[in-house]
Amino acid sequence: MEPALRRKIERFVERNIVAFHENRAANLDRLKLAEVLRAKNPYLFKAKHLESAPDLIRGLLDARLSSSEEGSFGGFMEDLAIFVASETGGGEKSEAPGLDIDLRRGSTRYLIAVKSGRNWGNSTQHAQLRTYFADAVRRLRQSKHTGEIQPTLGICYGKFKTVNNGKYLHIGGQSFWHLLSGDRDLYTDLIDPLGFQAKQFNDEFEERKNNTYNRMTRDFTNKYCDDDGAIDWKQVVEFVSSNLPD
């Protein structure tokens, strides 16, 4: 990575990564036992023989936090991709609905939707993306755009071959960052800037997370454990699933 670009990326990360860490902490403070419990399958936890309230709460909370962090950090990575495209020339934030980057490379105009990882969305969302691409291409054709137009799904990480499925180009990992920047090594060079104050942020987060474990374990024990301390699974299942009138 060129030193000038590195400095720009470092400044971008310093300005924006703080929001990711603040969102992680705020999500902890907002979490309620009922919300977390309703979102998970009690039969699965029973089948895994989770009979300790602290272990059950840790399993519930860790699953919830992992999903939340993937989404939040995915948004950050998508913003970083837009920034890199604009700073390395030829790229800008797309004005087309559902798309993120409008990138020119040579005679080709890439209309890019950015996703953090490959496992994004359901079949309806995938169909919607194809519609976004088709609408954007049609508008450009109507404006007498000349040159090749290439709808592109860009994935921030993952090791897979670049494929054109006839609807759009599917590109990810090293190839995606290379397309945005022209730099073959950018995908690895990004790692160092992303570590900005990571230990400090993580230490603060772990303290708040332990407090949340303790709070939720207390609430769960008071409501869903019998006098001997055993989990009352019938009551748990009723809370999660009962919906018939008495």
Features:
type ii restriction endonuclease, domain 1; alpha/beta; 246 residues; 12% strand; six-stranded mixed sheet; type ii restriction endonuclease, domain 2; 60% helix
Question: Secondary-structure blueprint of this entry?
Answer:
Layout: H1 3-30, H2 33-38, H3 42-47, H4 53-87, E1 91-93, E2 101-105, E3 108-115, H5 123-142, E4 148-155, E5 163-164, E6 169-172, H6 174-181, H7 186-189, H8 191-194, H9 198-224, H10 233-241
Parallel strand pairs: 3-4, 4-6
Antiparallel strand pairs: 1-2, 2-3, 5-6
Helix pairs in contact: 1-4, 1-9, 4-9
Provide a concise account of the structure shown.
The protein is of the alpha/beta class and 246 residues long.
What does this structure look like?
- With 246 residues, this protein is an alpha/beta fold.
- It has two domains: 1-88 and 197-246, type ii restriction endonuclease, domain 1 (Orthogonal Bundle), CATH 1.10.3250; 89-182, type ii restriction endonuclease, domain 2 (3-Layer(aba) Sandwich), CATH 3.40.1560.10.
- Helix content is 60%, strand content 12%.
- It contains ten helices and six strands, in the order ααααβββαβββααααα.
- It has helices at residues 3-30, 33-38, 42-47, 53-87, 123-142, 174-181, 186-189, 191-194, 198-224, 233-241; strands at residues 91-93, 101-105, 108-115, 148-155, 163-164, 169-172.
- Strands 1-2-3-4-6-5 form a six-stranded mixed sheet.
- A hairpin with a 2-residue loop joins strand 2 (101-105) and strand 3 (108-115).
- Helix 1 (3-30) runs antiparallel to helix 4, helix 1 (3-30) packs parallel to helix 9 (198-224) and helix 4 (53-87) runs antiparallel to helix 9 (198-224).
- The protein is elongated, with a radius of gyration of 23 Å.
